[in-house]
Amino acid sequence: MHFLDQLLKGREEQAYALLRIVTGFLFIWHGAQKLFDFPKEFPYPLNPLMYSAGTIELVGGILVMIGLFTRPAAFICSGTMAVAYWMVHGLNNIHPMLNGGEIAALYCFGFLFIAVRGPGIWSLDK
Q: What angle do CA 103, 27, 12 make, to 5 degrees?
C-alpha cells in the first residue's frame, strides 16, 4: 500500500475537481434529454415538474461542471435528486436496486458533498 499512498498523496484537489466536473457533465445530459430529446428521446410525457427538473439538471450541471455558483447549484441539484428519488422511485420500493433509483440517490449525495465541499481550486468561483 505504500506505493499507492505515495502515488496518490497530494492529489486530493485534482481528484475532487474531476469528481465535480464529471458529475456536472453527466447531469447535463439528463436535462438535455428531457428538454431537447437529445442525445436520445425522453420516454415519458413532460409536465411542468419535469420541465423544471430538466432545467435544473441542464443549468445546474453546467454550473457545477465549470465551478460557478457551485455551492447553491449543487445544493439545488441535490434537492432535485432527493425529490426525484422519493417521488419516482422510493414509492415503488424502499430498496434502490429494486426501485431503479440508485442513480438518483448517488447524484443526491454526490451533489450534497459538492455543495458542502465547495468549488475547489480548479473552478471559476474563487
A: 85
Q: Three cell numbers at 10? A: 497530494
Contact of 82 with 105, CB cutoff 8 Å:
no
Widest pairwise Cα distance in the chain: 54
Between CA 16 and CA 47 the distance in angstroms is 35
What are the extents of the domains in the chain? Answer: 13-117
**What's the grid cell of residue 126?**
474563487
Using CA atoms, how far apart are residues 44 and 11, in angstroms rounded to an integer? 42
Mean pLDDT of 22-31: 98
At 46, phi and psi to the nearest 5? Answer: -95, 140
Q: Could you give the CA distance from residue 95 to residue 125 in angstroms, rounded to a whole number? A: 37
Are 70 and 117 a contacting pair, CB within 8 Å? no
Task: Tell me the pTM.
Answer: 0.94
Residue 109 CA to residue 122 CA, distance in Å, equals 21
Q: Which DSSP helix (H) or strand (E) runs through 103?
A: helix 102-117
- Give residue 100's pLDDT: 94
- Number of helices (H), then strands (E), belonging to the chain: the values are 6, 0
